Amino acid sequence: MKHILPLIAAVALLASCAIQQQKNTVRLSEIETSIVAPVVADLDISDVRLSFTYYPSKAELRLKDDSIIIRNAIAQALEENGQADVLVNANYRYNYKGNVMKSVIITGYPAKVKGFSKPNQPFDYYYYHTTPYIAR
């Protein structure tokens, strides 16, 4: 009995010193900052209307976010049709088979940016912004 009592005390002492684990989770968030300034883009818009069929991947369909699919479709359409910068008057139509999206048809006019400039009249500024125009 005398030999068992110290053994029980040692086991109780070790059991009270349990190992604790901590799990810390850090979440990074983007802070969006922007400076609003009036800028006019001079575009060279094509006369030919672009029509492009995009087939989304299974990974894109799993995200269940149609805006990502539309952005990827527009980017691939512009890349494969003359490396244009922007698609003017863009329209899209989804094709489904059952509940699964099979393709997206993108139509619009591809345009390349010729340059950027400041608006030269107050009308341009008021058309794009709601803040007051300050002549310099």
Question: Could you name the key traits of this structure?
Answer:
136 residues, alpha+beta, 4 strands, elongated, 4-stranded antiparallel sheet, 30% helix
Explained architecture:
The protein is α+β, with helices and mostly antiparallel strands and 136 residues long. It has a domain at 40-128. Helix content is 30%, strand content 30%. It has helices spanning 4-16, 58-63, 66-80, 122-128, and strands at 40-45, 50-54, 86-97, 100-117. Strands 1, 2, 3 and 4 form a 4-stranded antiparallel β-sheet that branches. β3 and β4 form a beta hairpin. The radius of gyration is 31 Å and the shape is elongated.
Task: Please give a quick description of this structure.
The chain is 30% helix and 30% strand.
Topology:
Elements: H1 4-16, E1 40-45, E2 50-54, H2 58-63, H3 66-80, E3 86-97, E4 100-117, H4 122-128
Antiparallel strand pairs: 1-4, 2-4, 3-4
- What general outline do the C-alpha atoms trace? elongated
* DSSP strand count: 4
Low-confidence stretches: none
Largest sheet: 4 strands, antiparallel
Question: How would you state the average pLDDT, rounded?
Answer: 77
Count up the helices: 4
SSE sequence, one letter per element: HEEHHEEH
Helix content: 25-40%
